[in-house]
Specification:
Blueprint (H helix, E strand, L loop, with lengths): L15 H6 L7 E4 L3 E5 L9 E5 L11 H22 L3 E5 L15 E6 L15 H16 L1
Antiparallel strand pairs: 1-2, 2-3, 3-5, 4-5
Helix pairs in contact: 2-3
Bound molecules: guanosine-5'-monophosphate.
Guanosine-5'-monophosphate binds next to β2.
Length: 148
């Protein structure tokens, strides 16, 4: 381990989540406001697995502005509650990874919000691409719960 503090690498606007926000790649959006965007993970670890991201160009927890982080956290809470209602879940897991050592793979800050059912383990990360019809139906359920 080095004593020299490491600098966070620069934000790359060509990351896949930036492309999703710009509409260059399709995704199942469940929520949007002036600061935050949320959409379904394409390889959900449980039904309703949602990614909540800032519109601002932040790589991860190390470079996001406090106001944007607060906005993302508030939406993550809304999505968590909606996920429990929409999927009859018993709990919810939130996760955020920053930099490769943590397991981060996409370098636009995201909070994973994953509804959990008692006794049901998470599927392995990024393991199975979900059927698009299933994701479409899950997105509708979440959107309905978010506006209820
Ligand atoms: P990380 O490890 O960076 O926290 O997680 C990245 C997440 O992005 C993974 O859960 C993975 O399934 C998801 N993901 C990767 N590519 C895509 C994509 O093209 N569309 C969507 N909706 N999710 C993606």
């Amino acid at each position: 381990m080095s004593d020299t503090p490491r600098e966070t690498p620069a934000y790359d606007p060509q990351n896949i989540f930036a492309k999703i926000m710009r509409g260059e790649i399709p995704a199942f959006k469940v929520y949007e406001d002036d600061r935050v965007f949320a959409f379904l993970d394409i390889m959900p670890r449980a039904p309703g697995h949602t990614l909540v991201i800032p519109k601002a160009p932040a790589r991860n927890i190390l470079d996001i502005a406090p106001d944007d982080l607060a906005a993302v956290a508030l939406v993550a809470q809304k999505v968590a509650k909606a996920g429990i209602a929409a999927f009859g879940a018993d709990g919810v897991t939130l996760m955020q990874f920053s930099e490769p050592a943590s397991g981060q793979e996409v370098y636009h800050l995201h909070i994973h919000v994953i509804p959990r059912v008692d006794g049901v383990p998470l599927k392995p990360a990024a393991s199975v691409k979900e059927d698009m019809a299933v994701l479409a139906e899950h997105a509708e359920r979440l959107k309905a719960a978010l506006t209820a």
